[in-house]
Automatic annotation (TrEMBL):
Keyword Glycoprotein: no
Protein name, UniProt field: FAD binding domain-containing protein
UniProt cross-references to InterPro entries, sorted A to Z: CO_DH_flav_C_dom_sf (IPR036683), Diverse_Substr_Oxidored (IPR051312), FAD-bd_PCMH (IPR016166), FAD-bd_PCMH-like_sf (IPR036318), FAD-bd_PCMH_sub1 (IPR016167), FAD-bd_PCMH_sub2 (IPR016169), Mopterin_DH_FAD-bd (IPR002346)
Highest taxon above the source species: Bacteria
Residues of the FAD-binding PCMH-type domain: 11-189
PANTHER family registered for this protein in UniProt: XANTHINE DEHYDROGENASE SUBUNIT C-RELATED
Amino acid sequence: MRPHTRPALGMEAAELDRYWRPRDLRAALDIRAGEGARPLAGGTDIYPARAHHAAWEGSVAESLLDLSAIAELRTLERDGRHWRLGAGVTWAALRDAALPPGFRALQQAARQVGGRQVQARGTIGGNLCNASPAADGVPPLLLLAAEAVLLSPVGERRLPLDRFILGNRRTVLRDDEILAALLIPAERAEVPSAFVKLGARRHLVISIAMAAADAEGRATIGACSEVAHHWNGEVSPISDIRGSAEYRREAAAEVVSRALTLASAA
C-alpha cells in the first residue's frame, strides 16, 4: 500500500508527513513495524497536540497509521469467558451498547468524555495509549480487570492494564506493536458498577479526581497521580492548575465513597 504524502506545515517541501489507512490488520502491522508509523484512531488527542506543537514550536513531519478502517478493531462482543472490547470502539458506540451491569461505570465515563463530537470519534484504545493521568477510561477498565492485547508481526502478548500504562504519556507499547483489544473477564462484567468524575463542569473538562467502584466493594481512582490505581484508602495526589494535592486527597475519598454508594444501589 502506497502512503499518501502532504507537506508538513512550516517544513521544507522535501520533508513530508506520510499517511496510511489500511483496511486489514495484517497490513497495518506490517506498516507499523516497517515504517515506524504512529497509530492513529479518532485523532482527538493527536491532532490537537500536533496543532499546538505547530503553533508554538514548529511542525515536525511524522508518519501516521490510521487504524479507523479496520473493522476487526471495532468489535464489542462476548468471546467465551471474556468480553472483547476492540481498541477501535468509539466512546459513542460503547455509550449506546447494550451491555452487562459491570460495564456501567465505563459507559458513564463514555458519556462524559468531551462532547458528542469527541465521543463519536475518540476510541478506547486511543484513550489508553495517550496515557493521560486523567484518562477517563482507565479507572473503569482497571475495575473490570481488563487485559491489554498487543499485536506485532511476530505475535501477540497480553498484559494486565496496570502493567500497560507506565506513567504520564508512557506505555509499554513497542514500536512494532498495536493495541488491538481489551479482554474483560465475563464474571466481572456481571458486577454492577458506577463512575463518578469531579471537574469544573460535567463535559469538556479534565478531571480533578474520578473513581469507579462496584457492588462488591472494589474501587479505583484516577486523575490524582501519574497512573490510575486501585483504591486502598490512601492516595499521594499531585498538585496542578486544577487542584492542590490537599484538595485532591479529600476529593478522592469523596468520589470513591459516592461511586461505592451508587454501585451498591444499582
